[in-house]
Amino acid sequence: QVHLEESGGGLVQAGDSWRLSCVASGSAGRSFSDYVLGWFRRTPGKEREFVAVINWNGAITYYADSVEGRFTISRNNGAKSVYLQMDMLHPEDTADYYCAADLSPFGVVSTDESSFDYWGQGTQVTVSS
After folding, report:
1. What does the pLDDT profile of the chain (129 residues) look like in tens digits?
2. CA dihedral 86, 91, 93, 96 (to 10 degrees)
C-alpha cells in the first residue's frame, strides 16, 4: 500500500502564492520514481477535477486550463514528495486539494482520475477575495 499525505492547506488572500506538499510512504512493490503523480481538487457540490500531473522525472507536466500559467507541479523523488506551487490565487481556487499516485505500467501520464491508484485525504485551501 502507498500512503499519501498532503500538507500546506490554509486561508490565503486572492493574488497570493501558496505551496502544497504531499509525501508518500509505504510501497506497492514499485519505486516512488515510477509513480505518475497528480493533484486534483474538489469544491463543495462539484465533482473532483484534475489540476496537474507530472511524470516520473518531471519532464512531462499537464495542467487544467483553469490553472495553466498560475500553478506549477514538481516532485522530489529522493524525498518521495510532490508539490503544487499556486500563484495568483483566485477565490475560485478554493477547494480541497488531493494528491494522487498512478502506478500504471510504463509511466503513462493520464489526467483521468480513474487512472490513479492511491489518494491522500486532502488539504483545504480557502482563497478570500
Report:
1. 899 999 999 999 999 999 999 999 988 888 899 999 999 999 988 999 999 999 999 999 999 999 999 999 999 999 999 999 999 999 999 999 999 999 988 888 999 999 999 999 999 999 999
2. 110
